[in-house]
Specification:
This protein has one domain. The N terminus is likely disordered. It has 284 residues and is an all-alpha fold. The protein is globular. The chain contains twelve helices and no strands. The protein starts with 18 loop residues before the first helix and ends with a helix.
Length: 284
């Protein structure tokens, strides 16, 4: 009786990447990206200079405005700078940790996104760590300088609670920007040609997100509060810190709503992203 050949065993699925493992993987990839950027110091310096130049341009525009008008909608120079500082710090943190999301159209064109889908690590994590976002350093440097000038102009008695509120507002601004960009990324996965929405959101935030809502007509006030809620990434938290809570549009309770808005946008953005990736997988 002939010996029976052994039945080949089915390949076992790759073990899932645990949250701690994901964080370690992200740090390893980011470290490698920074080393790659430092290999060419001229490119490294130019990337930082690009971040500085853009944010300085925003501040110079605000300086010109205040040269003509000592206050805007009842807000003084230091108070308006607090709005822009919260927004810019949140933007800098977004660019540092999640800014590569804006490179999604490039990843799709080069076929790198398809390669990400074949690896065991989460696709979104691979997008976030695609390259070291050196220009975010420039963004953060200017934002910190803006905040230091702002604090010197404000007549506010800072308490531990207010400092904690400010730090939470900065983190909330970063999460709000992430949530909005995740929605855009999901659209990019479905509709080619929608990548211009990344630039549109960045332009709208940088143009309108640095100023009090009272400057704008009621239609824009509603849009920046309920449709594209960039007002929660600077204006509403700053209103509570500067004593303007009673003058904000719609309801004074909105000054405390930014954590809920950030959480809702992140939850919704991640849900849209998962659906976008599933749609892409079915059609490509």
């Amino acid at each position: 009786m002939s010996a029976m050949s052994p039945v080949p065993r089915a390949a076992e699925p790759a073990p899932p990447v645990l949250p701690v493992g994901r964080l370690r993987l992200a740090l390893v990839i980011l470290r490698a990206g920074v080393r790659s950027q430092l290999a060419n110091r001229a490119d490294f310096a130019m990337a930082i200079a690009n971040g500085v130049t853009y944010q300085v341009t925003v501040l110079l525009f605000a300086t010109v405005i205040f040269g003509r008008f000592p206050s805007l909608a009842g807000w003084g120079v230091g108070e308006v700078l607090l709005i822009s500082s919260i927004r810019m710090l949140g933007h800098g943190l977004y660019m540092l940790f999640f800014g590569n999301l804006g490179l999604l159209p490039h990843l799709l064109r080069d076929g790198r996104f398809d390669a990400f889908r074949t690896r065991p690590a989460p696709v979104l994590l691979q997008v976030f760590t695609y390259e070291a976002p050196v220009n975010a350093v420039g963004d953060l440097v200017v934002a910190c300088a803006s905040l230091s000038v702002c604090l010197s102009l404000l007549d506010v008695g800072w308490t531990v609670g207010m400092v904690a509120f400010l730090l939470t507002a900065v983190a909330g601004a970063s999460v709000i920007e992430l949530g909005l960009n995740l929605h855009i990324a999901a659209l990019v996965l479905r509709f080619r040609g929608s990548e211009s929405l990344f630039f549109w959101l960045d332009s709208v935030s940088g143009t309108f997100g640095n100023y009090p809502l009272g400057l704008f007509p009621w239609l824009l006030q509603g849009a920046f509060t309920f449709a594209v809620p960039i007002a929660f990434a600077g204006f509403y938290p700053a209103a509570w810190l500067t004593g303007h809570a009673d003058t904000v549009p719609f309801s004074s309770a909105l000054v405390f709503a930014f954590p809920a808005v950030a959480a809702l946008l992140l939850w919704s953005g991640l849900a849209w992203w998962r659906r976008g990736v599933a749609f892409y997988a079915r059609n490509n």
